[in-house]
Amino acid sequence: MHLKYLLSTLTLLAALMVSATAQTTTDFKSYTQAIPGSNQTYALVSIPGGKFMMGSSPDEKGHKPDEEPKHSVTIEPFYMGKYEITWDLYDLFAFTNMEKEMAAKYTESDANLSKTDATTRPSPPYVDMSFGMGRAGYPAINMTQYAAIKFCAWLYAKTGVFYRLPTEAEWEYACRGNDKNAALAYSFGNDVKNLGEYAVFTGNSDGGYKKVGTKKPNSFGLYDMHGNVMEWTQDQYIADYYKLVASGEVKEPYAPTTTLYPNSVRGGSWDDEPEILRSAARTPSAPNWKVLDPQSPKSDWWLTSASFVGFRIVRPAKTPGDEEIKAYYGIKALKDY
What we know:
Elements: H1 3-8, H2 10-18, E1 23-24, E2 31-34, E3 41-47, E4 50-54, E5 71-75, E6 78-81, H3 87-94, H4 96-106, H5 111-116, H6 145-159, H7 168-176, H8 195-198, E7 230-236, H9 241-247, E8 263-266, E9 282-284, E10 309-310, E11 314-316, E12 318-319, H10 322-329
Parallel strand pairs: 7-10
Antiparallel strand pairs: 1-12, 2-3, 3-6, 4-5, 6-11, 7-8, 8-9
């Protein structure tokens, strides 16, 4: 569990999440981020801070022990992607030639490319990672947590704006919307019969993901928080972490990644039953998500066997300092076997 390591990183975590000395946006409203040198944009929704109860009660259908105890968490304001990251945007990061071709069409200068030249990028995939399920307007899938963080680093170089993965606490808070007391299994209520209005899941997916934003949003205006694809958080998955938080053994609702497996993904997917799509449901990543990877060691970038996993990004309202940003983006890949 590396508790000593967790405790030693609290200063950095606090800076990333609630830095009191960081630069603060003066106009906390939803906005759309233009991506220089392209025709792409990314819509972000302003999520007001507040307290909420994280986790679920044993009487909730589908409840698991790693969701207890319910405990109070305070969340600082942040912005969250309105939609999951799509292939349209992810491919600009993953393939340098695509970024350059796009820039040639939409800018008179490639000056912005010089900012991303040094960005660490994915190795070429050995197959089409969408597996034929759709690309334009569809969520990007099959990337590792490391790849999702490096995408954020690329986007920072591209835009000058600090983006990162959400913590598990931020993700659940955003998913629940107005459900601050964790009284509901889903953001819209407890009746699973209504799930199809808000989510793409095994009951209506026809065996594949769908374009982002095809279902109803939650009360914050976020789409596909339930279903379509699971979403990476920046947390290590620790089954009893809520107990550690509730007991005071750790002070932050965030577990830094210290080992390759497992990490936490949230929201359930097109390939999951309703219980996995609940607001409180936690899913640990696993080595078999790379079972089809023919490389040795296996890829730092691609999962190959996780066509149910994607991500969306957040931006804290208070931007951390340069050193904290450098530390976040400068992570090294944890080697697979």
